[in-house]
Design brief:
Blueprint: E1 2-4, E2 13-16, E3 23-26, E4 40-44, E5 51-55, E6 71-75, E7 82-85, E8 87-89, E9 92-97, E10 103-107, H1 114-124, E11 130-137, E12 143-149, E13 158-164, H2 172-187, H3 189-198, E14 199-204, H4 209-214, H5 239-251, E15 255-262, E16 269-271, H6 281-297, H7 320-328, E17 331-338, H8 354-373
Parallel strand pairs: 3-5, 13-14, 13-15, 15-17
Antiparallel strand pairs: 1-4, 2-3, 4-10, 5-9, 6-7, 6-10, 8-9, 11-12, 12-14, 16-17
Helix pairs in contact: 1-2, 2-3, 2-8, 3-8, 6-8
Length: 377
């Protein structure tokens, strides 16, 4: 019996693995950081044995409430990921499982590997409306990819920016991006043509390739939380944000969406930038319109639960949405999806999943079309 994590996105440390009934593990911290919560590991040699897993340091994770009522993801083929019950007692996350095969995988959420990211980029470029720009390299030397979607006829249009996975452990964000790109490549021709009549789209499907490959929860190779770097990014510590912000300043921004996952809250919701000093009736109407359209379109989305809006003047200007709304005077929002499941629309087999993340992307695209067609932008 053996547990390993030396692969793309892997994260676990083995304390004991001599007996199936006593497998003790800890989650490795992000490099140069105290953040940890993401795990992803492979188990071999335990077929037909009842295994007891204990993640000893779950109570000290970045979001310990994220492990309350949490169901772990497991897979035999790394394509289909199902859910399994866990318990949290005295800071230890435990579960029992009897593998049916010689090799299987467990993860905090369905992984989105860097190899799949590269496949996503090439898939996007199958469409005549997509083009690619290499913004630059990360600290580990990986490419930071920007996709533009445009009719390229020289006509002025609104500029819509969408970024995902600033926090690399929030893999549902890039699954969302895959759904969005699928819709724009050709999955929703009626929809994508309506959008492209009115806007050019700029997508960064993965803002944090280094953290993704390293198996981090929240930071890049320098241990920086990218969504706290937007006020003063640097090429030395946060080149991902520096390069993205520079490109946005060059194009201008009329709409901005930052796609994330929330460890603790079992809801899909949107957070706005109400804490900005310039927040007023116009900004509130824009935010309310988009949220209401998404509520009408997708049963997984709701507006009752989420982050409490900040009072004017209390915005965190180091965050992407506040900084972008301030600089460009546009509607800027954070979409949050759960690691657990939605309480109102639960799925016992899959929980919140890649498929549901991708469907949410289609819904967000519909809401974007309606927003672009409104008189609010």
């Amino acid at each position: 019996m053996f547990i390993s994590q030396e692969f793309d996105g892997g994260n676990i440390e083995v304390v004991a693995c001599e007996r199936a009934d006593d497998i003790r593990l800890t989650i490795r911290q992000d490099a140069k950081s105290e953040f940890y919560q993401w795990f992803y590991f492979r188990l071999t040699g335990a077929r037909d044995q009842l295994c007891t897993f204990k993640i000893l340091n779950a109570g000290g994770a970045a979001y310990p409430d994220g492990f309350k009522d949490y169901r772990v993801c497991y897979s035999y083929d790394r394509h289909t990921w199902l859910r399994w019950d866990t318990t949290l007692n005295d800071g230890v996350l435990s579960f029992q499982f009897r593998p049916e095969r010689d090799v299987m995988y467990f993860a905090y959420f369905t992984p989105f590997l860097m190899e799949r990211h590269h496949e996503l980029i090439t898939h996007a470029l199958e469409s005549e409306y997509f083009s690619h720009t290499l913004l630059g390299q990360t600290l580990d030397g990986q490419d930071l990819d920007l996709l533009k979607i445009s009719r390229n006829d020289g006509k002025p249009r609104k500029r819509c920016w969408i970024i995902a996975r600033q926090h690399p452990g929030e893999t549902m964000a890039e699954w969302w991006m895959e759904g969005f790109i699928d819709a724009m490549v050709g999955g929703r021709p009626d929809l994508n043509m309506d959008v492209l009549k009115l806007a050019d789209l700029y997508l960064i499907p993965n803002m944090n390739p280094d953290g993704s490959r390293r198996g981090h929860l929240r930071t890049n190779a320098a241990g920086r939380n990218l969504n706290r770097e937007w006020a003063h990014p640097s090429m030395e510590a946060s080149p991902e944000v520096f390069l993205a912000k520079q490109a946005m300043l060059e194009t201008g921004v009329d709409f901005f969406l930052d796609v994330h996952g929330d460890e603790s809250l079992p809801y899909c919701f949107i957070a706005g930038t109400e804490g900005l000093l310039q927040w007023g009736d116009k900004q509130q109407k824009q935010l309310d319109f988009y949220k209401q359209r998404l509520l009408d379109i997708n049963a997984d989305f709701q507006i009752e639960h989420g982050y409490p809006p900040k009072k004017p003047g209390e915005a965190n200007m180091t965050m992407s949405t506040a900084q972008t709304a301030h600089l460009h005077g546009c509607l800027a929002m954070t979409l949050e999806m759960p690691f657990k499941d939605t309480t109102a629309t639960p799925d016992i087999l899959y929980g919140w999943s890649p498929d549901r993340s991708m469907r949410m992307a289609h819904s967000c695209l519909e809401a974007l079309r309606d927003y672009l067609q409104s008189d609010l932008i």
